[in-house]
Amino acid sequence: MSACVVMIRVTTIFLFILISSVLIAYPAKPADDDNPRVTILVLSKQIRLLREGLLKQISIIPGRDSIITDESNNQSWTAGAVTVLTERGRLRVFVDSREVSYPIHYRISGITGDDMCAVKLGNEERRYPLPFLITGDEENIRCYTEERLRRFAVESAMAEYSQANWKETEAIMALAHAIMARYYYAKKEARHQDADFCDLTHCQVYRGRIDAVTQLDDNWMIEHDKLKHNLFFHSRCGGSTVDISAFGDAGRPSASPGLGVRDWLFREGVQLCTNEDSRWERSISRDELMGILFPDYKLVEKDRFTLELDRDRMRVRVCHGAGTVSYPVETFRLMINRVKGWSFIRSNSFRVAEKTVDAKKLYIFQGEGLGHCVGLCQHGAVGLARRGYSRYEILEHYYPDLELRSTSGKCAPSPYLSYVIFDISSGRRLDLSHGPNFLSRTVPPGSVFKLIVSLYCASERSDIFNDYDFTCPGVNTRDPNMPDRCWNAGGHGRVRMLDAIPNSCNLYFASLYNRISKKRFMDFFQRFCRSLGIDASLPEISSDRQWSELLAGLDFRLSFTVSDYVRIVRFLHGGADRQEGQDGGPAGVPLQNRLRIFQSLKETFIRGTASGRPRPYGASCNYRELDGLLQRNSVDQREMWGKTATVIDGTNRAMSYGLFIGGSGNTGIVAVLRKGNGHIAAKWAQVMLSRFAGDSAD
User: Tens of pLDDT along 178-195?
Assistant: First the structure.
């Protein structure tokens, strides 16, 4: 065999290995890839500070196996460093201590997809993924890096927050989802000719790779194709966000709905973003304001200068003697701040008043928040995360018109499902959907409260517990002190206590309002809560109608935490005291009656509110794939037990939630389902418990 043939074969093998390694390191993207590589323009601010003499130098240090090449690929350096410094206002670039001439175009490349370069900025050091590109001339240098979109979104979200808030994962991930959607939205009208993002605040902060990165591997994403507007976010809103019209016509398509929401929990009346740090006040004289707004125009009649704020249209109207000008509030704010400093008028949520001091006319600006105040409020999102709300609830709190889509290509749990699964005997957590804060999440009990009513009767009114019956007609036309209807419009017919529990008959429990003592029940409730370590109190009851609605589980002023529901599940199941043969147990409920209530809770799945196939209700993603999942992965419903409830809850607006507490064998679950009801929540509990079916023996 000739040496030439051998050389050709060796070369062919080498090229095959080289191409294979490239394909492994950079696999081909499928057509519907949800995680593309994105290009980020970085270090723009630092280059400016360098040019202004406020930063000494920038050092870009490749990894050990990295290579630096020029535009023609005819020069390369291994290792070494690229240094950029300034001399008398001129930028100078050195590669391996050797100064290079302009124009420059250097690319730092690595062998694997995880290679990085270090960038030293004074006392700060960052790590950027490779490839890293440095290009430009002595007037301006531009640096670029590349990253996968999902990782960039998380690391950018973490950079937007202080490290003290990184543990609030649901707030971080909500912002990461918004940043991902911003990438797709920007494709409609790119802001950068040669990059997808920059690291300045008009895009979002990015400081390179972070060690404690959280993976964004969710099965549900924002449906970016249906976005009506960009997903803006800001630092603090001070109590309410403002409408997207703050940016003017360019920021809001004519058919787009508004974005302003109240940043609070409506049921509790808790403001999520409001404290002393959020409130601010600034003043500026009329003469200075005129000089900023009209620097090249001499006003002849300055006494006719007026300024008015239209908060409904988010515009500032200025009359200056020779005419009238109207500015979007964001435009007005930035015009002032370019002269007075970026935080002079701190936000777009402000009021303005006139005041005369020593014959000098002043304009007083009073406001709340920090930033443009449109879209997601980072401070408020942290407040929601700390209260146990999921990333999808946080997103819909600030962007009410969002739609979600599945990206998994398979049946995945609903994005609106939150749950905790636990061992009933020990209380040990087995699975938790959205972090430990979910355990402190408060949810109204709704029909779960009927269990406490039944426990009271089991303890103190055996006559009602054993013998009282009521015919539920579905619609109440007789007693004005009772609710107008049962949840089942057709009625439940003649029921007793152990029938009313699994069927959750509203009118049966409401009918007890004139049969049991309000005072004795309230005393029992306090004992019950004390015995289980629950911190809860009943709302004030001022009428028989309110009393009957409370007994029927229709008073949503009362709340328990998810941890409280875990305690109730363990109590209902019996736990250690049943095994030890105790009679009475917590709150003095006889064991035999507790067991009868427990058995009736098994009927919930056989003939009660959780029986049958899933019935559509609320958001389609809550039930669309549920029937198939139940057939493939679910606990036998004959092994399931528990109580369903449909409650009115939410953050800044009322929303239907499904609640289920119960379990299968010795495995318990508390499930909360946004845009759902108790029936669908119970079905999801069946699916989620299937992973622990082998441990569910009683």
Answer: 999 999 988 877 777 889
pLDDT per residue as tens digits for the range 315-343 = 999 887 777 889 999 999 999 999 999 88
Checking if the pLDDT of 662 tops 90, the result is yes
| Predicted local distance difference test score (pLDDT) of residue 287 | 86
| 358 and 468 belong to one structural domain | no
Nearest CA to 350 out of 334, 331, 373 is that of 373
Domain assignment of residue 269, yes or no? no
CATH at residue 618? 3.40.710.10
Element of type H or E holding 381: helix 378-386
Task: Say yes or no to pLDDT of 125 above 90.
Answer: yes
Q: Are residues 287 and 357 in the same domain?
A: yes
Instruction: Say how far residue 141 (Cα) sits from the centre of its chain.
Output: 37
581 pLDDT more than 50: no
Residues in Cβ contact with 288 at an 8 Å cutoff, skipping those fewer than 6 apart: none
The pTM score is 0.89
Instruction: Specify the pLDDT at position 595.
Output: 92
Query: How do strand 37-42 and strand 141-148 relate by DSSP bridges?
Result: antiparallel
Q: 637 falls in which pLDDT band (50, 70, 90)?
A: confident
Same domain for 562 and 625 = yes
* Alpha helix (H) residue ranges in 161-228: 169-186
- Do residues 336 and 440 both lie within one domain? no
Residue 43 corresponds to which tokens in the numbers above? 């270090």
Residue 434: CB partners within 8 Å, gap ≥ 6? Answer: 170, 388, 390, 391, 418
Q: How many domains does the chain have?
A: 3
- Provide the β-strand partners of residue 144: 41, 133
Nearest by Cα to 579 from 453, 426, 465, 448: 426
pLDDT at 170: 96
Are 335 and 191 found together in one domain? no
Average pLDDT, the chain: 87
642, 685 in Cβ contact below 8 A? yes
Is residue 673 within 8 Å of residue 622, measured between CB atoms?
A: yes
Mean pLDDT computed over 368-376:
93
Distance CA 344, CA 350 (A): 12
DSSP 613: S
Residue 61 domain boundaries:
39-226
**Residue 190 sits in the same domain as residue 312:** no
Q: 104 and 185 in one domain?
A: yes
Q: Is residue 409 part of a domain?
A: no
